[in-house]
Amino acid sequence: xxxxxxxxxxxxxxxxxxxxxxxxxxxxxxxxxxxxxxxxxxxxxxxxxxxxxxxxxxxxxxxxxxxxxxxxxxxxxxxxxxxxxxxxxxxxxxxxxxxxxxxxxxxxxxxxxxxxxxxxxxxxxxxxxxxxxxxxxxxxxxxxxxxxxxxxxxxxxxxxxxxxxxxxxxxxxxxxxxxxxxxxxxxxxxxxxxxxxxxxxxxxxxxxxxxxxxxxxxxxxxxxxxxxxxxxxxxxxxxxxxxxxxxxxxx
Length: 251
What we know:
- By secondary structure, this protein is an all-alpha fold.
- The chain has six helices and two strands, in the order H-H-E-E-H-H-H-H.
- The protein has a two-stranded antiparallel ribbon.
- Helix 1 (2-13) crosses helix 2 (18-31).
- The chain is rod-shaped and about 195 Å long.
C-alpha cells in the first residue's frame, strides 16, 4: 500500500527530494518514448522530511483528501492492520532493530552535522579544484583564441607585405629598364660622337693638307729674284716706318 502511494506521489514531487528524484528518473527511463531524452538533474540537497524518513510530499498529497491528521491516521491504521493480521510479528529482532534504529538516529543527530560539514568541505575542495582546472582551460583557450586572431591579423597583413614586395620588384624592374635605356643612350651618343670626331678629323686633315699644298706651291713659285726684291722692299718699308716713328718721338 505504501509503495503504491510513494509511486503515485512521485509524479507530483519531481525533484523535491532524493527519493522523489530517484523515482522520477526511474519512471522516466522506463516510460519515456525517446531514449535519448535528457535526464533531469538531481537536486543538490534533499527535500523536507518528517520523522527523518517520510517525505513531506506524501503529507501534501494526502492533505486535500484526508486533512491534516489523515497521514498519521493512515499510518496508525496500517500499523494496526499489519500487527492485528500478524503480517508482521513482533519478536526479538524487532527490539534489536529498534535499538539499532535508535543508535543510528542518535548517531545521525549527534554526528550528522559534523560529517555533513566535512563532506561539504571535501565537496567544496573538489569543486574548487575542478573550477581551477576549468579556469585554466578557459584561460588557455582564450589565449589560443587571441593567438588565432593575431595569426589571422598577420595573414591579413601578409597581403600588404606581398603588395609591397610586388611594388619593390616592379620598381627594381623599372630601374633596371631605365639603366639599360641610359646605357643604350650613352653607347649611341658615344658612337655619334665618334662619327662627329671622325668627320671633324677628316675635315681638319683636308684643311691642313690644302694649306700645306698651297703654301708649298706658293713657296715653290717664288723665284730668287722675286725673293731679293721682296726682301729689299721689306727693308725699305722698315726704314720708312723707323723714320716716321723717330719724327713722332721728336715732335
